[in-house]
Amino acid sequence: MTNRPAVRRVVSLVPSLTEAVAESAPELLVGATDWCTHPAGLDVVRIGGTKNPDTARITALAPDLVIANEEENRAPDLAELRAAGVPVLVTEIRDLDQAFTELHRVLVYGCGLDRPGWLDAAEAAWRALPVPGRRLRAVVPIWRRPWMVLGRDTFAGDLLARLGVDNVHASHADRYPAIPVEELRSAGADLVVLPDEPYAFTAEDGPEAFPGLPAALVGGRHLTWYGPSLVDAPAALSAALSAATR
Predict the structure, then answer these.
(1) Between 20 and 30 A from 2 (CA), which of 68, 148, 150, 192?
(2) pLDDT over 90 at 71, yes or no
């Protein structure tokens, strides 16, 4: 492909995108956030959190490209990097199709790479999903103290919908509304879906708040990350949902 940028040094401010670059061309990655946990043993300079990156440290790394996300990163931080002359590519990902488009943009047009095989494998895995035999309604908490859930227009909600699970709060005005647990219990859900991030829900911490409601404990990386985890996500999420509802 022509007109590819000469990118040799990349800093990622998004865990999903960090894994995507590291899986595709690890030699490019020179910096990542403290929350970038995949792949294991990632040996790059840590530049702080997604919401409070050390912009001076990032600039000192002299990156050819910083990759970010409009939801996970703060606009003032990105503006500061641009003002320092650092190229910044900002992604927007609200559903699976957009994730695939943005991953291609980051890796091929942003980083100048050939399209990675894992991205084709991920698209194939999601295309191969059978049409759900039944549809269920779910409450999907992402935090407690206070309780917060998936609302409208979320990537995780779109993944669940493709697996036959409709988010009860998908039409809420907010994307991540705070809702009292009493209202969540009475929302008419068939199950509660509890990911292990950003809040680390477990079998002992979460299901007890929804007595009588089946609880599906799912990996947050499979539900909320857009990267190489998308290859295994359909099978992993389907297994967790089936275990809770059979």
Answers:
(1) 68
(2) yes
Q: Could you read off the pLDDT of 97-136 as tens digits, one per residue?
A: 999 999 999 999 999 999 999 999 999 999 999 999 899 9
pTM given for the model: 0.94
201 is written with which tokens?
A: 């829900």
The half-sphere exposure of 110 on its side-chain side, counting CA atoms within 13 A, is 28
3-state secondary structure labels for all residues of 197-233: CCCCCECCECHHHCCCCCEEEECHHHHHCCCHHHHCH
Q: Is 74 a residue whose pLDDT tops 80?
A: yes
SS3 state of residue 141: strand
b/e code 95-111 from CB counts within 10 Å (16+ = b): bbeebbebbbebbbebb
The phi-psi region of residue 164 (left if phi > 0; otherwise alpha if psi is between -120 and 50; otherwise beta) is: left
Coil, helix or strand for 236?
helix
Secondary structure of the chain: what % helix, strand, coil (to 5)?
35, 20, 45
Beta bridge partners of 160: none
Pairing of strands 141-143, 148-149: antiparallel
Confidence (pLDDT) at 4: 62
Rounded Cα–Cα distance for residues 223 and 220 (Å): 5
